[in-house]
Amino acid sequence: MTLINRTRIARLRTIGLTGLATTGAAAAALTLMPANAQAAEATQVHTATAATASGDTGRTATQQGGKANNLDGWIKQSLQIMKAKGIPGSYEGLKRNIMRESGGNPAAQNNWDVNAKQGTPSKGLLQVIDPTFKAYHVAGTAQSVTDPVANITAAANYAAHRYGSIDNVNSAY
Q: Any idea what the Cα angle at residue 121 is, between residues 141 and 138, rounded to 5°?
């Protein structure tokens, strides 16, 4: 493990522990997952109104539109897709949540919280678990939870259904 990776892991642990200390046990989730009581409702809402995966091209972030292969480019590309699909959100709201959840690391994975202990660790820029990614995946993005554009767009789609917009999320989801 490189020094940079150890530093990132230590920083993520510090952020997680600070969140636990300041906001209580609810901060432990640090994921985009609907509560158990809302899981069935989320699936029903998704079926009726969420963006669907039909027509998915499976292209990766670097293949779509030639955007920069960095956080700024991924956010801008996600915003273009979100606009086309009617998913609300702003650059500032996305970046704020990304920096809190993963520090901008698209390979970030939480292996210690309750979801990880149950076999579904949160992954990617916005720390999405696989069931949430599948339920809120947006057509035109890759089918991979760790693809930066797919992760951002699915998370924003979930946040739109749960909170009205990713812009309304200011703490652990």
A: 15
d(CA 153, CA 85): 10
pTM value > 0.70: no
Q: Which of 53, 38, 78 is nearest to 135 (CA)?
A: 53
| Residue 54, helix vs strand vs coil | coil
Rounded to whole angstroms, how far apart are CA atoms 66 and 98? Answer: 22
* Residue 103 and residue 127 in contact, taking contact as beta carbons nearer than 8 Å: no
Q: CA 146 to CA 127: how far, in whole Å? A: 9
DSSP 168: G
Give per-residue pLDDT as tens, 2-32. 545 555 555 545 444 444 333 333 333 334 4
Handedness of CA 109, 36, 20, 158 (dihedral sign): positive
Report which of 167, 159, 157 is spatially closest to residue 82, judged by C-alpha positions: 157
In this structure, what is the dihedral angle of CA atoms 142, 156, 49, 66, given to the nearest 10 degrees? Answer: -40
